[in-house]
Amino acid sequence: MSDSKKSIRLPDEILSHIFTYLPIKSIIICTSLSKTWKSLIQNPTFISTHLHHSHNNNKNNLLLLKLSRNDKQVYALHKEDDLDFTEYTSFDSPFHGPHLRHPHNHVIGTCNGLLCLSNGLLYFASELLLWNPCVRKLLQFPIPRATFDSRDLSFASFGFGFDPKSNDYKVVRILSLLRCPSELGKFRPAVDVYSLSTGEWRMLSASASLPPTCGIRLRETPAFANGALHWIAFRKDYNEFVLVFDLGDEVFRQILLPELPGTMMWTRVSVYGNSIAGFQRGSWSGPINIWVMKEYGVASSWTKFSYQCPSLGPLRPHPVGFRRNGEVVLEDVSEYNIIDGVVVLSDKDRRGLISWNPDSLNVKNLEIDGSHKTFLGSYVESLALLDKATKGPHAIMVGDEL
Description:
Blueprint: H1 12-20, H2 24-31, H3 35-41, H4 44-56, E1 62-69, E2 72-79, E3 87-92, E4 105-111, E5 114-119, E6 127-132, E7 137-142, E8 153-163, E9 168-178, E10 190-195, E11 200-203, E12 215-216, E13 223-225, E14 228-234, E15 240-246, E16 251-256, E17 265-272, E18 275-281, E19 288-293, E20 302-307, E21 318-322, E22 328-333, E23 337-339, E24 342-344, E25 351-356, E26 363-369, E27 376-379, E28 396-399
Antiparallel strand pairs: 1-2, 1-27, 2-3, 4-5, 5-6, 6-7, 7-28, 8-9, 9-10, 10-11, 12-14, 13-14, 14-15, 15-16, 17-18, 18-19, 19-20, 21-22, 22-25, 23-24, 25-26
């Protein structure tokens, strides 16, 4: 039905209500059938309304997994409430084509149907991308150069989330400075924030907005929960804490961690329902402990789960994250090499995913092969990025077909 041949013109309110209940694929098709429909669907107000409806009426709770299949990166959505963890759909990695120089990428985070990805090495990434695979939109933008003295070394940790106060998506870069390895954690990090609404980076300069003098655990991405990003950080005396950055107020705060035995260290923070959880471990053969913050923001509510970690192979599995039902998803390495008595892992080692219930102690093999640094996160299909122009001064929009 073209605009010139319409016999009945439904009010926009009714059309919006109808579109809200359609599957994403059907909504995208509607944008090509009518200019009026396209304008209505690409309106930011409708995109927000559709997202709100998806959060409140998502019958199929989905989990996103970054996997490796046939030496290619794949992003798979799984129905986590299904007993068999059935795959709902999957998307090939967007990292191909002449405009993208690196065949592999790292997931910084996912929120409201968007994935934030870095190309190449995360610590030295030169570009970031926001990707909505459901609407085939990819936003590519550069990272500002470090402002430290060129003779100094700096390492970046990135976080991604949504600021409900400004209705804006933000990427945060924490830049840690060190002149030698022993000085990590002895300088105040620099912080830059990228705003999707402005398409620009800005450095935080107000003293109240800056983090304390500390170092950041660089190997793991932060957890986004309750409108804030959470990193494992440490002071120069190596005492560890959770560094929290509120995306709305753009200020840092700290959450104390339980004290650990001398052989244990905190490795990462993960989303746990409406709160957070912390993982700690010793060596490869040592125990893995999980601490859950029962009441978000209250350090005294940390509760410990300690267990002999289940395994499909001879090594301790690597915690990936949580399912909505509280089960822990772990990446278990069943193939590896030992060189001079040291376990050496490669991207091609088989990494099976298992789900473990800390209450019943039941273990389920999910029959899914993982990959190096498998990413897991809750996912909701959305129209985010659909309202963005194809080109702009600070970004390039490309289709999924590239």
